[in-house]
Structure formats: structure tokens, C-alpha cells
Design goal:
CATH superfamily of the largest domain: E3 ubiquitin-protein ligase SopA
Radius of gyration: 20 Å
Distance between the termini: 24 Å
Number of domains: 2
Strand order of the largest sheet: 1-3-5-7-9
Largest sheet: 5 strands, parallel
Number of strands: 11
Order of helices and strands: HHHHHHEEEEEEEEEEEH
Structural class: alpha/beta
CATH architecture of the largest domain: 3 Solenoid
Number of helices: 7
Strand content: 15-25%
Shape: elongated
Helix content: 25-40%
Length: about 220
């Protein structure tokens, strides 16, 4: 998860008048991660709340009177150097935490070896672009993890995904029986054909939409392919 956040923070260092990035949209993402338990982001969350949460997003500039738009963003532009300082301090802290985390980034081989040794809880790890098809991963708990993996046809029964970042994952035809996904950020993830008896999907979010739960999962998410 840290890698995803660090990319966002690096983009926040871009000067606001260049319009290369939408700073307010990125600050909203940072604030959302802070609310979901990433306490290292607290200084940036406070910066965002101290007068900048009502600024118009760059992508909405065409809807504003140009002179009014420039005026309302003036204070933000002036304060950007302060934001850069906070961002750089936060990045250093995140990278330090990453280097001190024994299990932070795991290869497929290292991860499966730990699974075979009956390790049941994985916290703060990075599983990126890993093929985990047809694996027995039942009963595992993932917490505060960044996961981009192919889980097709795998046994994920009784498996929990908590406060994690799930990107471009493929759960098609996986067994999610009695599993749980709670407080996760999910994007471009497929579930078509998954077994979901007793599966709980609670209080998750996708992009700017929050509080996505069981109803939304059964109405449209489960059909994604």
C-alpha cells in the first residue's frame, strides 16, 4: 500500500499552477487513506482540512469564472511549499517504515512458503503482479496490505481482507465462501463466477465512492469480468 500512497505524494509535489495533476483530488485520496487507519498521513490530512477541502478541483475549472477560480486557489498556491515540506517528511517516514517491515514485499515463492508453514496473518505486505491461481489460501488474514494478484480458481474460503488496497485483482471462479472484505479500496477487480456463500463485503470504497457494501456487491460488483 505504501508504494501507491508514495506515488500520490510525489504527484502532490508538482506545482499547482502547472495543472499536471489535480491536487485536491489527490489530497482527498490521502485523506481517505488517513481515515482508513494510515496514521502516517495525519499531517497532510490536517493540511487538507485547514482551509483547502472546499477548493474546486482543477478538472472542474471550466465550470468556474476564471478570475474567481484563480482567486480562490491563490492561498493554496502560496501554501504549496509548506505542503511539499510535509509531503517529503511523510515520504521519508513511509519509506523508513517499509524498510523496517520484515514481510513488506514478498515474491510468490516467499509468500507461498510462508503459507505452507501455516502463517495465517499477513500484515503490511506487498503482493504485486503475482500469479496465485489454483492455490489453497483458505483461512488467511490480510491486513493493511497492497495486493495485485490473480486468484482465479483459488481456495479463499474463510479468508479475510482488512483495510487493504486491492488493485487489478482477479477472483473469477475463486472460492470466497465465508470470506470477508472490509475497509478495502478496490479497483479494476473481477469477481465473475466466484463462490460467495457466506461472503461478507462491508464498508469498502472504490475511487471516491465510500461505504460500498453487500447490496452493491450483489447488484453489480459480483458480475465484473
Amino acid at each position: 500500500m505504501n508504494q501507491e500512497i508514495i506515488k500520490i505524494l510525489e504527484n502532490l509535489k508538482e506545482k499547482p499552477f502547472t495543472e499536471k495533476v489535480d491536487h485536491i483530488l489527490l489530497l482527498e485520496k490521502v485523506y481517505s487513506e488517513y481515515l482508513n487507519g494510515m496514521k502516517e498521513l495525519e499531517p497532510i490530512a490536517h493540511f487538507y482540512l485547514n482551509g483547502f477541502d472546499d477548493l474546486p478541483a482543477i478538472k472542474e475549472r471550466d465550470l468556474w469564472n476564471k478570475s474567481k477560480f484563480s482567486e480562490i486557489r491563490k492561498d493554496f498556491v502560496k501554501a504549496h511549499s509548506e505542503l511539499v515540506g510535509i509531503v517529503e517528511s511523510t515520504i521519508r517516514k513511509l519509506k523508513s517504515n517499509e524498510s523496517n517491515s520484515f514481510d513488506y514485499q514478498l515474491s510468490k515463492e516467499a509468500f507461498l512458503e510462508l503459507v505452507k508453514s501455516r502463517k495465517a496473518i499477513f500484515e503490511g505486505i506487498d503482493l504485486e503482479n503475482i500469479d496465485l491461481r489454483n492455490e489453497d489460501l483458505s483461512g488467511i488474514t490480510f491486513k493493511d496490505c497492497f495486493i495485485s494478484a490473480d486468484f482465479r480458481n483459488s481456495d479463499l474460503s474463510n479468508t479475510k481482507f482488512l483495510k487493504s488496497n486491492i488493485k487489478t485483482c482477479d477472483f473469477r471462479n475463486a472460492d470466497l465462501t465465508n470470506g470477508l472484505m472490509e475497509n478495502v479500496s478496490f479497483e479494476s477487480t473481477k469477481f465473475k463466477g466466484a463462490k460467495t456463500d457466506g461472503f461478507i463485503f462491508n464498508d469498502n470504497y472504490c475511487y471516491s465512492a465510500e461505504g460500498i457494501g453487500q447490496t452493491e456487491f450483489h447488484d453489480w460488483i459480483i458480475e465484473t469480468e
